[in-house]
Amino acid sequence: MGKASRRRAERGTVNARPLRPEVTLRPLTSDDIAVASAIVRAGEVLPKDMPRYVTGPPTPENGFSFGTAAVVEGTLVGVVVAQGVRTDLSVDLSGEVGLLDGIAVAQPLRGAGIGALLQEDTVQRFQQMGHRGVVAQLASGRRDLPGFYMKHGWSVGLPGQGAILTTVEGPVAVLEHPTMRVVRRVLAYGPRSPFA
């Protein structure tokens, strides 16, 4: 323990992270949607107002069909919402590049590593599906998110930069928004790299 940490410990000002409880990851079900939606909204992790997460069964359109639930002692405490990227240019990249819409953990368990588990599980699932990369658009109000993603091997872009994806039809810009940052993680290197 360094001098500064020791002084904070003596003053009782050490930021105690909650210990990670026993966590089970499983696919989201229709029964999870109300709680999952509440966790996602409370986490303020979505890049914009996304009413599609408020109600309904897990579908590709609302991202919950690829969603994962983090469960502790039978209670849903975290959720990841993800899907394949689709563009407005009739270029379907859903089998190429994954979109991680949001990771959210219930307030009492934030900082316990549950978000990291959900993030890594999602990346592994995209890899197993043959995706070449994964992107996420960060909510502009959450200044802690770039550090979280960088810690886990993602590249963080500048606000408004978006991401340039390589396709058979040429480069395609996605997720451009003047105030939001895009993070990306390469899953396949070499000539099949998904990012220009």
Q: Strand pairing plus helix content: what structural class?
A: alpha+beta
Main sheet overview: 7 strands, mixed
**Helix content class:** 10-25%
Count, helices: 4
- Which parts are unreliable, with pLDDT below 50 for 5 consecutive residues or more? 47-54
Radius of gyration computed on alpha carbons: 18 Å
Cα separation of the termini: 43 Å
Order of helices and strands: HEHEEEHEHEEEE
Label the overall shape: globular
The mean pLDDT is 76
Strand content: 25-35%
Number of strands: 9
> Can you list the strand order of the major beta sheet?
1-2-3-4-5-9-6
Keywords:
two-stranded antiparallel sheet, 4 helices, 9 strands, globular, seven-stranded mixed sheet, 196 residues, 30% strand, alpha+beta
What order do the helices and strands come in, and which of them pair?
Elements: H1 3-11, E1 24-27, H2 33-43, E2 68-72, E3 75-86, E4 92-105, H3 114-128, E5 133-138, H4 145-151, E6 155-156, E7 163-167, E8 170-174, E9 181-186
Parallel strand pairs: 4-5
Antiparallel strand pairs: 1-2, 2-3, 3-4, 5-9, 6-9, 7-8
Care to describe what's here?
With 196 residues, the protein is α+β, with helices and mostly antiparallel strands. Strands 1-2-3-4-5-9-6 form a seven-stranded mixed sheet. The longest helix has 15 residues. Helix 3 links the parallel strand 4 and strand 5. Helices cover 21% and strands 30% of the residues. About 4% of the residues have low confidence. It has four helices and nine strands, in the order αβαβββαβαββββ.
